[in-house]
Each structure stands twice: as C-alpha cells, then as structure tokens.
Specification:
The complex is a heterodimer of chains A (102) and B (288).
Chain A (H helix, E strand, L loop, with lengths): L6 E2 L21 E6 L2 E5 L9 H16 L35
Antiparallel strand pairs in A: 1-3, 2-3
Chain B lengths: L2 E13 L20 E4 L1 E3 L2 E4 L8 E6 L2 E7 L8 E5 L4 H8 L26 E11 L4 E18 L16 E7 L26 E5 L3 E7 L6 E3 L16 E4 L2 E2 L4 E2 L5 E3 L8 E7 L6
Antiparallel strand pairs in B: 1-3, 1-8, 2-12, 4-7, 5-6, 7-10, 8-9, 9-10, 9-11, 12-18, 13-17, 14-15, 14-18, 16-17
Classes of the chains: A alpha+beta (102), B mainly beta (288).
Chain lengths: 102, 288
C-alpha cells in the first residue's frame, strides 16, 4: 500500500505531508521530488525536533519496498546502520542525492 | 494603450535569495533542496494596497524673474506600499517576523509570537494581481505589479470592537512594504537583459500586463528528474519560455518540453543540479 505521504506527478497527490499533517490543497504547498516521478510535500513549519532527512529517507525506503517486489537489485553493500533487513522486500533507495535534502 | 485599475485579487510573496532569485515559501532561501518546487505564498485576504507617493527631487534654475531650467537630482524613489489584510494569516506573519507557526507544543492550538529581538530582516519578492480595464481596446486584462526586492512589517495588529450593525472588513490588519532597487527581475532574468531601459539596469517595481494574473514558482533542478508540478494550473501550455509562460533557467530565458494545463506538470530535460528554473506564468489559481 502506497505511503499517504507520497504522490506522483500528474497521477495522484499525497494526503499527508512528510510530517504526517493533512495536506491542504490550496497551492501553498512545497513539492519535493524523491525520484521516479514521485514526490512528497514538505511542511512550511515542521514540528520542533522533527528529523526531516530521516523522514524523507524512510519514505523513499518504503516507496522502494512497495515498487520493487523482488530481492535486492542494486548490488550495493548493505548499510548496517540504516538498512532494515527483510526477507521479503528489498530496501534499495531511489537515486536521489541525500546531500541535497535540507 | 491605456488601462485603469479595477480591483485587487491575489497577493503573493516569495523569499528572495542573496542572488535575487525567488524561492517561494522557503524561509532559508539560500539553502534550497534540489528537486523541489517553491511556489510563492498566496494571500487571498488582501483587501487593498495603496502605494505612497514617489519622491523625486527637482532642481530649478531661476533668475531674472524667470525659470531658465529644470532637472531632477536623481531618479524617482518609489514610495512605501501600505497594504491591508482583513484576516490574520499566521504563516504570513511568521514569514515576515522570522518566527515559526508552532502547532506541536499544543496540538490543538496554533501559536505565534512576535519577535522583538529579530536579528535580521528577510527579503521578499512581492506581487499584486490587479484586474485592469483597457480603455483603448475595451478589454479586461491583468496587471501583476511586482516589487522584486522588498521588506515587510506589520504596522497595526488587528483589534476588536463592539459590532452594532452590518459591517464589512472590520478590524483589519495593516502592513507596509518597503521596496528597494534590484538588478534581477522576479522572472529570474537580470534587468540588463530585458528591454525596459532603466538606467543602471535596476528597478524597484515591475509591471507585467497580460491576459491572466501571474503566479511565481521556482524549481531547483536535481540534475535528473524530468518532471515537476506547478502549484496552480497554468492557463496556457506555451512552452517556449518567451511567451505566455515566462521561463528562465539560471537567469536565461529558455523553453521546456511541455506544460500540462490540467495537471500542472512541467516536463523538461534536467540540466544541472541546483539550476534555478523560474516560471512566471498565467493562471486562474486552480489547484491541479
């Protein structure tokens, strides 16, 4: 099931911001690409102590798990700090530069 | 061509980065996230704006009882622009005071405060969409009046009184916009590359007249994505960058592959990461 925080350009819109707030579709929203035509909406004022980088990383990992049902296709080495081992889904990330995220 | 002003519609503000580019609602405009669209923040609660008189010092040479010559000491300086909102907008207030809207301390309340020790002043690019009537052609058009380098402060907080009869817009809030000159247009292009001919290639105000009110959005390229979505549906699909939808990349006008008027999706070939794509485009302010 697709994360409620994820939208796809021209196809469907997210119903929640990256912080989990309801999206008010009034145009005053900020869309940020997360790869493969998908995007998230960044809150104007995230809650204090909210880890935006981690949240975006989690969304992308979840999206990757949803869109790729096969095993690990990336060929990269596992990151023991950030990767969640799974026997059923692979956790490859979408090709976005994390250094650019805030 | 001569046109008169009829009414004010949307007002929008965008944070201005240190190079003069608009960065929408990004409160840290010099640190954008690549791959993100930053739309100007739209205020639908603006009641009016009334620019103060411009000032321009005249120098005359009078002798022998007659005026021999007149010149201006300098160009005209734009007056401040007081404007009025009929409702309190916490987000807008937080933008101009460099504070944040706190919805997490108490999840059922929205908390804002003033900032009496505010250490720096954010710069904005501000647009007013004004419906006009062209008395030469008899057609209604739109002027988007843009201040490409402005600061804003609140001058009067909303009060409250005893309402005893029908009233429209009671207890308004007052603000003032103070413009400064800019070398860069809100469109992203330098004034030196445009055809207005202002001396020194700077301006304090620019007026774009056309068939639709204009909105301002900035896309910061991530070097890979081929699509992004505009905050509001564009009225027209022209993708040349030089007509209808004005498009610049790092300050230079140029085309995109396509603009969808239903979904608001812009398709383009990614250029380079962190490239700044600015769209000043006509819209009826319908959310895609």
């Amino acid at each position: 099931m697709m994360d409620k925080r994820v939208g796809k350009h021209g196809e469907f819109a997210p119903t929640e911001t990256i912080c989990g707030q309801p999206v008010l579709h009034d145009g005053n929203i900020t869309r940020s690409n997360i790869g493969d035509g998908y995007y998230i909406i960044i809150d104007a004022f995230p809650p204090k102590d909210f880890d935006l980088k981690k949240a975006i990383k989690d969304v992308k990992r979840g999206l990757s798990a949803t869109t790729h049902k096969a095993g690990d296709i990336s060929g990269r080495e596992r990151d023991p700090e950030n990767d969640t081992p799974s026997n059923t889904t692979q956790t490859d990330e979408l090709p976005v530069d994390h250094n650019d995220l805030g | 061509m001569a046109y008169g002003y009829v009414l004010q519609a949307q007002m929008w503000i965008a944070f201005r980065d240190s190079n003069g580019y608009p960065m929408g609602a990004l409160t840290t405009p010099d640190s954008p996230v690549n791959g993100t669209v930053y739309g100007a923040y739209v205020l639908n609660n603006a009641v009016e704006f009334a620019p103060d008189a411009d000032t321009q010092a005249a120098v005359t040479f009078d002798n022998g009882g007659t005026r021999k010559g007149t010149t201006y000491a300098a160009g005209a300086v734009k007056g401040n622009v007081p404007f009025t909102l009929n409702t309190f907008d916490p987000t807008f207030y937080a933008y101009i005071t460099k504070t944040t809207v706190d919805t997490s301390t108490n999840t059922t309340h929205t908390i804002t405060t003033d900032n009496p020790r505010q250490a720096s002043t954010p710069k904005f690019i501000v647009g007013f969409n004004i419906r006009t009537h062209d008395i030469t052609t008899g057609k209604d058009k739109w002027e988007t009046r843009i201040y490409p380098n402005a600061v804003i402060r609140q001058t009067a907080e909303g009060g409250a009184g005893n309402v005893t009869g029908d009233v429209s817009n009671p207890n308004n809030l007052s603000y003032v916009l103070i413009p400064s000159e800019s070398t860069r247009s809100a469109s992203g292009e330098l004034f030196s590359g445009m055809g207005t001919g202002s001396f020194g290639s700077v301006a304090m105000v620019e007026r774009w007249q056309g068939a639709y009110p204009l909105h301002l959005a900035t896309y910061v390229d991530d070097g890979s994505a081929g699509t992004f979505t505009l905050p509001y549906r564009p009225a027209l699909s022209t993708a040349t960058g030089t007509a209808d939808n004005n498009i610049t990349t790092d300050g230079t006008q140029g085309s995109v592959t396509g603009i969808n008027t239903s979904t608001g999706v812009v398709t383009r070939t990614a250029t380079g990461a962190a490239d700044i794509v600015v769209l000043l485009y006509g819209t009826e302010y319908v959310v895609p």
